[in-house]
Structures
1.
Amino acid sequence: MTGFLTLFGKEFLRFWKVSFQTIAAPVLTALLYLLIFGHVLDDHVQVHGVRYTSFLVPGLVMMQILQNAFANSSSSLIQAKITGSIVFVLLPPIPYSVFFAAYVLAALARGLLVGLGVLAATVWFADLRVVAPLWVLVFALFGGALFAALGMIAGIWSEKFDHLAGFQNFLIMPLTMLSGVFYSIYTLPAFWQDLSHYNPVFYMIDGFRYGFFGVSDVAPEVSLTVVFACFAAVSVLTLSLLKRGWKLRG
């Protein structure tokens, strides 16, 4: 536990000491999304009988949880590799499973803190009701943990910040922006509806939103199964890379 607590504390303090950038800035970004889209569409659009602003808030919360969990673990690893400080993490006799748990949980903590900040900042603009809080918690935890583990893969694979930016711009951003954050997939043409079902982030957003309104595009049990399967697969891959020391040990 000493190794875990030390690594977790290091990763937590890493983002907490610059919380204006790592927490406040994403909250402001989400608030701007809400003000712009909500102002334009709130009087014209309802989704599942829910005001558009209210519909949008859970999607924004979940999007920020995912993006910030990914950003924390990926940026930490790439910085450690570039500066050479990764050696101080690899030298102690810490099991790779502890390494994985500390980085994932610290990244998840950042994602959840940002998500709570977004919720607190936007709740005044929406009529939110939490009909299934357990679903909200489960999807927030598994979704954030999945993206934290994916961030570790990106950080391990990347050799410079350009590689990491490419991972974010060409994979993470399209997956989150095209996942139903701003719309219900049933407003799309049939082809795009079918394609959306191959996007795992859609299930995270949809299941998380179900916890607030009790309505969703897909049954929450199906969404949770997909999210858990993706988390298990990504975790196994990450643990395998850590065990091999791929691109971590020179």
Note: The chain is about 75% helix and 0% strand.
2.
Amino acid sequence: MASRIPARPARNVDDSSARLIACGVSIGLFVIACYLPALITRTPHGGGDSAVNGAFLLLIGSTAVVSGNFGWFANPLLAVAIVMLALRADRKAFKWGITACVLGASSIVSTRSYNADVRGTAIGFYVWMASLLVVPFTAHLLSQRDTRS
């Protein structure tokens, strides 16, 4: 006869596969975002709009600091968050990941405010933001599971 008492999660459950999957998904989305168009810009002399892919923005993004756009720094913060998640430091991974998300989201606001040539965002920007969100979301879920057990 089955017990009616719900099973409690076991302590010290090996969640390494969840960590590995989250890190892989985040890195995979990041790489995919590099190949997709991320920003729509106006071309000079009335030539219409063109798309800038994520890899180009990754290469030149650190130069945007001169104009007050610090969103590129979400990339190294994401790397730190991934390492923290892999090392089982869930709270640190969450904090670094949330900081990366805030910086990433702020990049679009500051891009539009200083440069009238930017027309909007494309799918690559949203895939990049998804890659930033995976790590803190997973770290939060794993830390909640640890506190309940």
Note: The radius of gyration is 19 Å.
